[in-house]
Amino acid sequence: MSPSSRPPEPAARPALRPRPLALPDTDRWVEIGRIGRPHGIKGQLHIQVHNPDSPLWRAGLVLRAWKAGAPAQALRLLELRPAGADFVATFEGLPDRSAAEPLTHCLLQVAEDDLPGKDDDEVYLHELLGAAVHDADTDAQVGTISGFIETNQLLLDIRLLAGGTALVPAQADAVVALGREPGKVVIAHIEDWRST
Known about the structure:
It is a single chain. 20% of the residues are buried. This protein folds into 2 domains: 29-114, RimM (Elongation Factor Tu (Ef-tu), domain 3); 125-193, PRC-barrel domain (SH3 type barrels, Roll). It is mainly beta. The chain has 1 helix and 12 strands. The model has no long low-confidence stretch (mean pLDDT 86). The strands form 2 sheets. Strands 1-2-5-4-3-6 form a 6-stranded antiparallel β-barrel. It has a 6-stranded mixed β-sheet with strand order 10-9-8-7-12-11, with no helix packed on it. β1 (29-39) and β2 form a beta hairpin.
């Protein structure tokens, strides 16, 4: 075939640029993990996952990465694999370590509406923040849940109405009811758990 009789080369296709990820239009975000330090040179990050068994953690999940003083950023999860006590994640659009480093210490959040359904006897931790804590014997309010502390077990950080705090393991026998009634937690012998 002579050079002049060759079929014309197809025109080069323009490179497809990925569309920027959009975050859902909501102001109700729920933390499901935290970003640690970068892992290696390929843009991967160490991740502390709050519930590794959650069906949320799948390829394609769009997360909100946020930390104080920086704008929120949408990230699409490509892969998540165990790495010791944590996980290593690969996100779309992070080709190298320098692209991943600014995300160090970001919270990873999902829109509350994207959380999977739960059984009647289950509660999400964010639903307990600010919940009234009642004494199991008198049903009088004795405090409010002000936060959670993660050690080898989850501790309910309770601000007592009489002053001070109590740290109660969420799985302790003293926790009689945990969110069965919305906004209410019932604990026996709260004074036994007083920390300050």
